[in-house]
Design brief:
The protein is mostly helical and 230 residues long. It contains ten helices and three strands. Strand 2 and strand 3 (78-81) form a beta hairpin. The termini are far apart.
Length: 230
């Protein structure tokens, strides 16, 4: 029985995969920093000219980005940077407000001294990234902080949902921080939540987390509405 044989040699395929990975990472950073905002069309021929390569690794890079949800490949439009609508942002933050404070109230009861120390260390990393303008790290460190707050809740399914919500609002959250100038407030509120947990003021910590999420939501939705002129 005959099997299909690729017309490309193994070394050629390896080169294309390596180049495609490098292109995907470059495009990923440009999307995450806002250079390519939601709705931007990424044309294969233009990208091939920019990078000085053929369209084959460009196409593979775009498929990689589509798999992560950063772009959508649409009929007649090609690759388009994905984004969230105002309604989707409202929905995500409504769910976070409902889930995270409750999970923190459960998790904080089980915090050890090491957990508090680790949260402080993570906050220092986040603070340094905010001050130095390392935008690409803001989302990663913010997600880690929120998930570490909730890690001992004993609700794996709820934690999985929160992790997905945090991932979905990664870019919008960085947009909110960079556009609104709320970096100092975010840093201050993270520290306050840890201090309340360390002091055993769990209900107060949960309330503070709720207000922290609500403020981010209100600020971000206002930014979206201004951009849309509504």
């Amino acid at each position: 029985m005959l099997t299909a044989v690729s017309t490309r040699s193994a070394p050629d395929r390896l080169v294309h995969k390596t180049v495609a990975a490098a292109v995907a990472e470059s495009l990923r950073q440009r999307i995450l920093t806002g250079e390519f905002p939601a709705g931007t069309q990424l044309r294969q021929d233009a990208l091939a000219d920019e990078f000085g390569i053929s369209r084959i690794p460009i196409r593979e890079a775009l498929l990689q980005l589509e798999a992560t949800g950063l772009i959508k490949i649409m009929p007649h439009r090609g690759a388009v940077v994905s984004g969230l609508s105002v309604e989707e942002v409202e929905d995500i933050f409504t769910l976070r407000v409902q889930l995270e404070p409750e999970l923190l109230a459960l998790s904080a009861q089980r915090f050890s001294a090491q957990d508090i120390q680790d949260l402080h260390g993570l906050t220092e990393e986040y603070s340094a990234a905010l001050k130095s303008g390392e935008i690409l790290r803001w989302g990663e460190l913010n997600q880690r902080f929120h998930l570490d707050l909730l890690r001992h809740a004993g609700r794996p399914r709820s934690l999985s949902i929160v992790a997905g919500l945090l991932q979905d609002c990664d870019r919008p959250t960085r947009l909110q921080l960079s556009t609104s100038g709320d970096v100092a407030r975010a840093d201050r509120e993270h520290r306050a939540i840890i201090a309340l947990c360390a002091a055993g003021q769990i209900d107060e910590a949960a309330d503070h987390l709720r207000r922290h999420i609500q403020h981010a939501a209100h600020s971000l939705i206002a930014i979206y509405r201004r951009a849309l002129g509504v």
